[in-house]
Design a protein that fits this description.
Length: about 190
């Protein structure tokens, strides 16, 4: 009843398969770049955390030496302060080691994902080139078939023209026979 209010759907534009490949390849390359960037960030963090572990280990060694010195001198207050420093440094060391383990796992995972994405992009590029070659070959075949159809159409048109000429001659013969004076039959004597 209200069909005049409906908008006509515009026909979808034909999809270029090579453009689809290109968009997917671009998306995967962008994703791979982000993954590599994240992996590089984690690798830099691993270096910083490794230096932190080394620094906390050195600090624990220093604290142990100073604690021993304070203990040898009988400085109970100094030993207590150094004991708190040791506990705090050990917690920092353990936290840093855990962060380092997590960064190593995550960076390995991201590097693996980046490698897989790189392989996928390479495979898609090969597939795209193959599709491009097949489409080009298909275009050549289509053009050859179109030319063959055009030749066939010309042959059919020629046959139709020949038929028209034959019909015209036949019609002319019929008119000629009808309009020729008929010879009077001969009388028998």
């Amino acid at each position: 009843m209200f069909g005049f209010l409906k908008r006509k759907k515009t026909p979808a534009a034909p999809v270029d398969p090579l453009a689809t490949f290109d968009r997917l390849i671009e998306d995967l390359e962008r994703q791979a770049a982000e993954v590599r960037k994240s992996a590089a960030t984690l690798l830099a963090l691993k270096g910083e955390l490794s230096r932190g572990v080394t620094r906390y280990m050195a600090r624990l060694g220093d604290i142990a030496g100073r604690r021993q010195t304070a203990h040898d001198r009988g400085d109970a207050k100094g030993v207590g302060v150094l004991e708190r420093d040791r506990v705090q440094t050990e917690r920092l060391l353990e936290s840093t080691r855990e962060s380092l383990r997590r960064a190593e796992r995550d960076s390995s995972l991201l590097l693996g994902a980046a490698g897989e994405l790189g392989e996928r992009v390479a495979d898609l590029r090969i597939e795209r080139e193959s599709a491009s070659a097949r489409m080009a070959a298909g275009g050549v075949v289509t053009e050859a078939l179109r030319e063959q159809v055009e030749r066939f159409d010309r042959v059919m048109a020629l046959d139709a023209a020949r038929d028209e000429v034959e019909k015209a001659h036949a019609l002319a013969d019929i008119y000629r026979e009808e309009h020729q004076p008929h010879a009077a039959p001969e009388r028998v004597k």
